[in-house]
């Protein structure tokens, strides 16, 4: 399980560092680690989601050179919350996946902004939301839904062959 | 299980807040250094993976671009080849028409240009169909020439076209003479598609291979001086009354595309209009 966690989280980090830049549209890149954390949390529960979010966030903090712990905390919280609520959500529907991931991305952005404000870090809210959080949230929503569908298709194919 | 998860969340949140607090109080270096011990190797690996992946991705994109470029260039080359063929063909046609025009302007006769639209090359009959007919006031037995020499005569006039009997037709005969010796005779077509010059033995002792044979102008059908062909071989029949000379036609009848019809009569000698070195 720990190996799987490490592979998944590192894989998300690698994907973010590599494919993320290639997937950039109009200077907006998806937050792949967040999508990975959400997917893991939905499947493995709050404990797993929390741990995965913490590691993935910490790696991102280190990679970006910002305040250590900001993304680690926000992603850990998101992973925990999704893991805890996962059973009650009908996440197999794309109509739920897209808005759900958009909402989660916005919540993560708001939480990050709140943390930064708590530590007296100057960040203009309006610009952050307009140019960073909202576009990335929309991108995350569609990319995450596509990933969920791809995983479902792969699993169906695997079941069909076995 | 839920308690454990909550406890984990609490620990994670505590660690994060501690990290943030340490950083805000100026102890960032220590916290970062401590984490860097663990994370730097991971980052190094990630950076290498990143570079490798980007390298592979870049190579793939380059390959794809090169393939597309290759396809585009192949199509362009194909188009240019067709274009070049068309240009060559136009160039060739242009040269032919220029020569025809030069001949038309140099001839002291009324002429009409025509285009070959069909060929009959069966052996029994050797003819060409030209796109000038009754509508163009073409008359039967009109002489037909090309820049290289005589082609034949019109034997059938139709509404929009005419049939030209080519010199190599087995029934074709034309009065002619050898330019150098002035030996008179008749040029006849042969079933195998060749030409022969029939002359009286007593007049033709001086004929040599390479001599040019032109129309004599006698009979009023063809103007005098139009090249017919060069002597290729002499068929000496000993004491026979007539001897024969095989001729290489001046005109390549199989390749000719444009001709001139001599519509204004055939009374004058036109030898000066042809390059005739005897």
Kindly describe this structure:
The complex is a heterodimer of chains A (about 160) and B (about 280). By secondary structure, chain A is mainly α. Chain A is built from 6 helices and no strands. In chain A, helix 2 (about 30-45) packs antiparallel against helix 3. The longest helix of chain A has about 35 residues, at about 125-160. Helices cover about 35% and strands about 30% of the residues of chain B. Chain B is of the alpha+beta class. Chain B starts with a helix and ends in a 16-residue tail after the last strand. Classes of the chains: A mainly alpha (about 160), B alpha+beta (about 280). At the A-B interface, helix 1, helix 3 and helix 4 of A face helix 1 and helix 2 of B.
Topology:
The complex is a heterodimer of chains A (162) and B (278).
Chain A lengths: L1 H21 L9 H13 L1 H19 L5 H16 L8 H25 L6 H37 L1
Chain B lengths: L1 H23 L3 H79 L4 E11 L4 E5 L12 E4 L2 E9 L4 E5 L6 E6 L5 E6 L5 E6 L11 E4 L11 E9 L6 E8 L8 E5 L16
Antiparallel strand pairs in B: 1-2, 1-12, 2-5, 3-4, 3-12, 4-5, 6-7, 6-9, 7-8, 8-11, 9-10, 10-11
């Amino acid at each position: 399980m720990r190996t799987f966690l490490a592979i998944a989280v590192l894989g998300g980090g690698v994907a973010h560092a590599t494919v993320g830049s290639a997937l950039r549209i109009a200077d907006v890149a998806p937050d792949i680690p967040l999508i990975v954390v959400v997917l893991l949390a939905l499947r493995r529960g709050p404990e797993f989601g929390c741990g995965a979010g913490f590691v993935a966030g910490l790696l991102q903090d280190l990679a970006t050179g910002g305040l250590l712990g900001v993304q680690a905390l926000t992603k850990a919280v998101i992973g925990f919350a999704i893991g805890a609520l996962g059973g009650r959500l009908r996440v197999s529907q794309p109509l739920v996946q897209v808005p759900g991931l958009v909402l989660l991305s916005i919540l993560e952005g708001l939480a990050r902004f709140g943390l930064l404000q708590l530590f007296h870090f100057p960040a203009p809210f309006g610009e952050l939301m307009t140019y960073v959080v909202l576009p990335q949230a929309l991108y995350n929503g569609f990319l995450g839904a596509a990933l969920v569908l791809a995983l479902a298709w792969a699993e169906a194919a695997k079941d069909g062959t076995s | 299980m839920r308690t454990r998860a909550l406890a984990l969340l609490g620990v994670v949140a505590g660690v994060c807040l501690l990290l943030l607090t340490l950083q805000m109080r100026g102890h960032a270096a220590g916290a970062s250094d401590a984490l860097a011990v663990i994370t730097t190797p991971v980052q190094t690996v990630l950076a290498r993976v990143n570079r490798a992946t980007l390298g592979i991705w870049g190579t793939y994109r380059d390959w794809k671009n090169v393939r597309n470029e290759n396809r585009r260039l192949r199509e362009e080359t194909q188009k240019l080849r067709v274009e070049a063929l068309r240009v060559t063909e136009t160039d060739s046609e242009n040269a032919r028409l220029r020569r025809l025009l030069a001949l038309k302007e140099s001839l002291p006769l009324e002429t009409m240009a025509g285009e070959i639209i069909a060929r009959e090359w069966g052996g029994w009959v050797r003819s060409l169909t030209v796109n000038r007919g009754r509508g163009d006031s073409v008359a039967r037995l009109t002489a037909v020439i090309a820049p290289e020499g005589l082609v034949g005569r019109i034997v059938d006039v139709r509404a929009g076209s005419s049939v030209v009997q080519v010199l190599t037709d087995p029934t074709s005969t034309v009065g002619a003479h050898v330019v150098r010796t002035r030996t008179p005779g008749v040029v006849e077509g042969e079933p195998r598609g060749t030409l022969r010059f029939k002359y009286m033995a007593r007049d033709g002792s001086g004929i040599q291979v390479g001599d040019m044979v032109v129309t004599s102008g006698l009979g009023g059908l063809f103007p005098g001086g139009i090249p017919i062909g060069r002597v290729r071989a002499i068929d000496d029949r000993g004491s026979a009354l007539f001897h024969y000379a095989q001729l290489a036609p001046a005109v390549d009848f199989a390749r000719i595309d444009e001709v001139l019809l001599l519509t204004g009569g055939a009374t004058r000698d036109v030898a000066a209009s042809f390059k005739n070195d005897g």
